[in-house]
From TrEMBL:
<dbReference type="InterPro" id="IPR019458">
    <property type="entry name" value="Est1-like_N"/>
</dbReference>
<dbReference type="InterPro" id="IPR045153">
    <property type="entry name" value="Est1/Ebs1-like"/>
</dbReference>
<feature type="region of interest" description="Disordered">
    <location>
        <begin position="92"/>
        <end position="111"/>
    </location>
</feature>
<feature type="domain" description="Telomerase activating protein Est1-like N-terminal">
    <location>
        <begin position="70"/>
        <end position="190"/>
    </location>
</feature>
<dbReference type="Pfam" id="PF10374">
    <property type="entry name" value="EST1"/>
</dbReference>
<feature type="domain" description="DNA/RNA-binding">
    <location>
        <begin position="203"/>
        <end position="335"/>
    </location>
</feature>
<dbReference type="InterPro" id="IPR011990">
    <property type="entry name" value="TPR-like_helical_dom_sf"/>
</dbReference>
<keyword id="KW-0677">Repeat</keyword>
<protein>
    <recommendedName>
        <fullName>Protein SMG7L</fullName>
    </recommendedName>
</protein>
<dbReference type="Pfam" id="PF10373">
    <property type="entry name" value="EST1_DNA_bind"/>
</dbReference>
<dbReference type="InterPro" id="IPR018834">
    <property type="entry name" value="DNA/RNA-bd_Est1-type"/>
</dbReference>
Length: 354
């Protein structure tokens, strides 16, 4: 019997005892990581043991209809590994830069260490992706649902499933799809050093899947906003930031991320469009014809790609101006609200003294 197979944990005291054992084992894992390293075989074995134990708890909670917030602990287990891998890769890169002036052998050893951690990180992300894909299937199977994606869109196939079980299953699956999106995002960043060659469609697909399974969650919308910043689409980032707030379960850091987006836009240097614009609001068609003639005059010297870049630049600048205008009113109103609130409390304080 596998370590992640379903074993009844119906006794509440037994569940707490088992979970405490998992937590203690995880503490041993972090101690082992710092003493023997991420890639050591003992570390890998203990990591597999902790992960399987979390799966056992999750599947049993699905079975007993008493879901706990174990999914977050499971993701923390993976994210700590991700963070540790990134630290080791950065350290190896920094050591390589500092040893360039030393013996070639030292430089080669440092490069080998960096490559080893980088390949180990890629393998970890791949295995974690397969793990979460398999976990989603297990949870669906545990709840008597089909394993294929998009099961929630098909009508009449889960009439016998209790609403509470369907609710818990959808919530868990939506969180796991967010995890899959994050893993796809990390894989794209570390497998393709060239920024221009990165394709965020896989991560976006996972996040969109999460929004469809659980529309009330702001988490996947926030992650889509992060992807939008990667491609420089500030307006799309603004849209998803707002969406991450305008739900029943807003993302905790959504307000902070929205302020950061506005502040970065406010501090960025936007190309002035007023110098190049020749627009008569009384004769808009003439202005459009003039723009077309200017484009056709230089058409022999321009390729399709270069003209597309120019159009994209203008569109980006326009959206950036719109976002800057929105951010001005938002930050200004937020400042006035805080100032009004402060004066209100100040007056209340003086009134109580009098």
């Amino acid at each position: 019997m596998g370590t992640d197979s379903l074993i009844p944990l119906k006794d509440q005291k037994g569940k707490q005892s088992f979970f405490a054992e998992v937590v203690n084992t995880e503490k041993q894992l972090w101690a082992l990581i710092h003493s023997k390293g991420l890639l050591h075989s003992e570390t890998q074995d203990l990591y597999q043991k902790v992960r399987s134990s979390y799966v056992k708890v999750i599947l049993n909670e699905q079975e007993t209809e008493q879901p706990q917030d174990i999914e977050y602990s499971l993701w923390k287990l993976h994210y700590k590994h991700i963070d540790e891998f990134r630290k080791r890769i950065r350290q190896s890169s920094a050591n390589g830069e500092s040893k360039k002036s030393t013996m070639p052998q030292n430089v080669a050893n440092t490069q080998n260490s960096n490559d080893k951690y980088l390949e180990g990180f890629k393998l970890f992300l791949l295995e974690a992706t397969e793990f979460y894909q398999d976990l989603i299937k297990k949870i669906r199977r545990c709840n008597g649902l089909p394993e294929e994606p998009l099961f929630y869109r098909k009508s009449g196939i889960y009439g016998s499933v209790l609403p509470t079980k369907m609710h818990d299953c959808q919530f868990s699956c939506h969180r796991f799809f967010v995890c899959l999106g994050d893993l796809a995002r990390y894989r794209e960043r570390y497998e393709k050093p060239d920024v221009q060659s990165r394709n965020w469609s896989v991560a976006a697909t996972y996040y969109l899947e999460a929004t469809m399974i659980w529309p009330d969650s702001g988490n996947p919308q926030n992650q889509l906003a992060v992807l939008a910043t990667y491609v420089g689409d500030e307006f799309l980032a603004l849209y998803h930031c707002v969406r991450s707030l305008a739900v029943k379960e807003p993302f905790p850091d959504a307000w902070k991320n929205l302020i950061v987006l506005f502040e970065e836009n406010r501090l960025s240097n936007l190309q002035s469009l007023s110098k190049e614009a020749h627009f008569d609001f009384l004769k808009p068609s003439e202005s459009f014809e003039m723009i077309q003639s200017q484009s056709s005059d230089g058409s022999s010297n321009c390729s399709i790609s270069s003209s597309t870049e120019e159009v994209h630049s203008v569109e980006t600048d326009l959206w950036s101006l719109i976002i800057r205008m929105i951010s001005f009113f938002f930050i200004k109103s937020r400042y006035l609200f805080q100032k009004t609130l402060f004066l209100y409390h100040l007056n209340f304080y003086y009134d109580t003294l009098l």
